[in-house]
Amino acid sequence: MLKKKEKYVVAVVGATGAVGDEMIATLEQRNFPVERLRLFASERSEGKTLQFEGSDIPVETIDENSFKGVDIALFSAGAERSKTWAPVAAKSGCIVIDNSSQWRMDPGVPLVVPEVNANDLKWHKGIIANPNCSTIQMVVALKPIHDAARIKRVVVTTFQAVSGTGKKAMDELLQQTTDLRSFKEIKCNVYPHQIAFNVLPHIDKFLENSYTKEEMKMVYETKKIMGDDSIKVTATTVRVPVFRGHSESVNIETEKKLTADDVRAILSKSPGIIVVDVPEKNVYPLPVEAAGKDEVYVGRIREDESIDNGINMWVVSDNLRKGAALNAVQIAEELIKA
Ligand code: 25A
Ligand code: L14
């Protein structure tokens, strides 16, 4: 458990990555009570320094002793690094908030979105998992609807930004766009196909059931976070040439009838959500507008006329903020509040 202090020693593991960057910025923007910030990455980043609250902080490599004296460690350096180092950090008495997929489905590890299941933080044993970005923004919008009308089934299709894959993927989209404009041959290193001016129905690896791992994360993580195994979820996850901000088309079937107006009213007063839904004025959530913001934006709310109790909606949020760094920092805020 975390001892109450005025300020905490915080570590960011994967500090030079797309999410790590955002974690550092989020700690600063939200005035998290940081006594000292430690930054970790691979040997590739040794010697680099990063800015936090006006000072230059060196990037260190990790070893067995790195987490001594650290109170809270935010991890975002990939599943392999979390598998090796999160238990080492937890053993040193530090609380790990892990953004990788490594621990999410472990029954001994809470998987938390503060707006939905902050209560699950009570039973952590040193590691807390931060859910997948697409799942986080969806459950923020699903929870109030589930509370009001019980969700039976969800059909979701995502339109995911390249920043979810990391900095190399952002560079690849930019480079391919530049190369195509000057009629040069493009290189595909991060994704198996051209991503510029294209759409790829493929995120993370394919599994035996022909779904991708990203699609199955949305199925399993939704049930775990919502604490309800009876919710049926089916997903198609798609990569689009957007830098920042995931969009989702979400179809919901509920037990109790809700009108589109009911859903608009429920979501308008729910935490972390902004309803943006004035179609006659071309007003609906857009990833370019959600980028850099904290909230989950919901629009295009309408009744599914093909079934009795159905709703369609369009859910957009910044995948690096609510989808990753912000959710992790919000978990840390809950921990120090307790
Ligand atoms: O699906 P997962 O496994 O959960 O993966 C989620 C995230 O992990 C990263 C990637 O983020 C992704 O979003 N990732 C995935 N596969 C990876 C791999 N093979 C991988 N990272 C490294 N190797 P990202 O690329 O935006 O940021 C990764 C962050 O993690 C740090 N990191 C990597 N290994 C580490 C480590 N930290 C501690 N110990 C380790 N052993 C990484 O630091 C970064 O902060 P870095 O010093 O390696 O990154 C500095 C720059 O180099 C680029 N880069 C990353 N991988 C490579 C690379 N350059 C060349 N070759 C590479 N293989 C990064 O983009 C960063 O800008
Ligand atoms: O957190 O967009 O499990 O490529 C791994 C794949 C995050 C998104 C996770 C992507 C995801 C990432």
Question: Your description of this structure?
Answer:
The protein is built from nine helices and 13 strands. It is an alpha/beta fold and 338 residues long. It has two domains: 8-130 and 324-337, Rossmann fold (3-Layer(aba) Sandwich), CATH 3.40.50.720; 135-319, Dihydrodipicolinate Reductase, domain 2 (2-Layer Sandwich), CATH 3.30.360.10. The strands form two sheets. A seven-stranded mixed sheet has the order 3-4-2-1-5-6-7, with helices on both faces. It has a six-stranded mixed sheet with strand order 9-8-10-13-12-11. Helix 1 crosses helix 9 (321-337), helix 4 (133-149) crosses helix 6 and helix 4 (133-149) packs across helix 9 (321-337). The N and C termini lie close together (10 Å). The relative contact order is 0.15. The mean pLDDT is 98. It binds 5'-O-monophosphoryladenylyl(2'->5')adenylyl(2'->5')adenosine (25A) and trans-cyclohexane-1,4-dicarboxylic acid (L14). Residues 13-18, 20, 40-42, 44-45, 62, 77-79, 81, 100-101, 165-168 line the site of 5'-O-monophosphoryladenylyl(2'->5')adenylyl(2'->5')adenosine (25A).
TL;DR of this structure?
Helix content is 31%, strand content 24%. The protein has nine helices and 13 strands.
